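Hello,

I think I submitted the magnesium ion job twice by accident. Can you confirm which output corresponds to this input? Input:
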Amino acid sequence: KPDVAQRLLGLAGRKIESPTVHAVNDVNLAIAKGEVVGLVGESGCGKSTLGRMAAGLIRPSAGSIHYQGKDIATLRGKARLDYILGVQMIFQDPQASLNPKQRLHQILGEALKVHGLAPASEIPGRVDAALAEVGLERDYRNRFPHQISGGQRQRIGIARALMVQPSFLVCDEPVAALDVSIQAQVINLFMDLRDRHGFTYLFISHDLGVVRHISDRVAIMYLGRIVEIAAAADIFSRAAHPYTQALLAEMPDVQRQKRVFTPIKGEIPSPLNPPSGCTFHPRCPHATARCKEEAPVLQDIGTGHQAACHLLTHPA
Ligand code: SF4
Ligand code: MG
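Support: Only one job matched these inputs. Its output is below.
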């Protein structure tokens, strides 16, 4: 039986696919109201799983998720609906989530209509307001999804989330499918919306460059675990974990500067059969015998800066 969150997604015209669930382990992440946390890692590291769990689309098999101080598993009735509406997801591919047979105003108005969240007479005005919020003219309301560009479709995906007046947006690779020139515009839109509404974001990307300017803090995930988390400026100026350093070394604009890091070698191991000890050890240029045996834990290495690496917490 679909859960209320899935029903809402379905009603919003989203195809409910069964995502491949990648393991997430021992993740302890608190996001403050109004904060933007960038969550970065390679494909398959579990970042989408973590985002979907935050949005209530996947239930963790252990541990808990709290929203505004309450364990979401205990929410019922109106409290649960408030959570489902309050936490909205923005996906990579807006195309797959927009019903091609519906005009944009129907797509945008649907959740309000079906859930009786606003009187019918108010819906057209709210649709127009949402279009304006995302920088689209009012006459877009009568178009179909195939009549607009990829960047505009992502704006519609964002507008649809705004219709239910959320406070927390989980954005999963929201610009990855867009041309580079359009990416910056959509990221700017996210930043404007945050300034206007005080939104909280979990902003997921495989690309450090995408989260750089929007994030207050950045968390780096590798094979289901957060291996480093710090203020965004610290991640870019004093990354401590060898994996973060390797990701930075692969960023084009960092490569032009003095190159001190070794790029990531090797394939990403399977999260289902992770390497022993530090799971990064087969790819790490600094791995020692200890790294193969003992898993490092996330520890404080500076103000608000944590990393999980033996080199940092017990220097040789
Ligand atoms: Fe590399 Fe060892 Fe640190 Fe893991 S614990 S990142 S293998 S040095
Ligand atoms: Mg993903």
